[in-house]
TrEMBL record:
Belongs to the AhpD family. Residues 97-168 form the Carboxymuconolactone decarboxylase-like domain. It comes from Conexibacter stalactiti. HAMAP family: AhpD. The active site is at C130 (proton donor), C133 (cysteine sulfenic acid (-soh) intermediate). Homotrimer. Disulfide bonds join C130-C133. The gene is ahpD. It is an enzyme of class 1 (oxidoreductase). This is Alkyl hydroperoxide reductase AhpD.
Length: 181
C-alpha cells in the first residue's frame, strides 16, 4: 500500500505521472518533513479519496503526528482561504477595505515550523489556483530562507500529485475499469 500502490494503479496513459511521482518523492531539495508534508497536503487538496488514502499511509511513515496534522490543516485552511482570496482578488479591489473576519489561527500556530506550514500552504494554493495566496506564501518562505529550488520542488510535487489524482479518478469513472481497490 502507499506510494507504490498509487504508482502501480496509474493507467498506461499516465506513465509520465508514474515516473514523476517516483522522482519527486525520491530526489528533492526539501527536508523529509517538508517533502512529505507537501505530498500529504497536496493529496488532501486534490479531493481524491484514493490518492489521499495511499499517500497519507506513506506520509505517516515520514512525518511526526504533529506534522501530519499540520499538513492536513494546511490543506483545510487553504481550501477556505483560496476560495475567499481568489474571489477577492478577481473582484479587482472592490472589497479590499473590508476585513476577512475568518478564523485562521492555525497559520500563526501550526504545530510545526512556520516555514514548513507556509510551504505546504503555497503548494496547496497552486493546486487550488489562488495566485494571491501563492504570492503571499512564496514571499514568506523565501524570506524565511528557502531557496528557489525548494519552492520549485514543492510546486513540482503539487503538480505531480494533482496529475496522479486526476488520472486515478478518470480511470475510476463510471464505465472505466477501476485500478485501485
Amino acid at each position: 500500500m502507499g506510494l507504490e500502490t498509487l504508482r502501480g494503479a496509474l493507467p498506461p496513459y499516465a506513465k509520465d505521472l508514474k515516473l514523476n511521482l517516483g522522482s519527486v518523492t525520491s530526489s528533492s531539495s526539501l527536508s523529509e518533513q517538508q517533502l512529505w508534508g507537501t505530498v500529504l497536503a497536496c493529496a488532501a487538496a486534490t479531493r481524491s479519496q484514493r490518492t489521499l488514502r495511499e499517500l497519507a499511509e506513506e506520509a505517516q511513515e515520514h512525518l511526526s503526528d504533529e506534522a501530519y496534522e499540520a499538513a492536513l490543516g494546511a490543506a483545510s485552511i487553504m481550501g477556505m482561504n483560496n476560495v475567499f482570496y481568489r474571489a477577492k482578488h478577481l473582484l479587482n479591489g472592490a472589497y479590499d477595505d473590508l476585513r476577512a473576519s475568518l478564523r485562521m489561527q492555525i497559520i500563526g500556530k501550526p504545530g510545526v515550523e512556520k516555514v514548513d506550514f507556509e510551504l505546504w500552504s503555497l503548494a496547496v494554493s497552486s493546486i487550488n489556483g489562488c495566485g494571491a495566496c501563492m504570492e503571499a506564501h512564496e514571499a514568506v518562505v523565501r524570506e524565511a530562507g528557502l531557496s528557489r529550488e525548494q519552492v520549485f520542488d514543492a510546486l513540482r510535487v503539487a503538480a505531480v500529485v494533482a496529475g496522479a489524482a486526476q488520472a486515478v479518478e478518470i480511470d475510476a469513472a463510471p464505465g472505466a475499469e477501476a485500478t485501485l481497490s
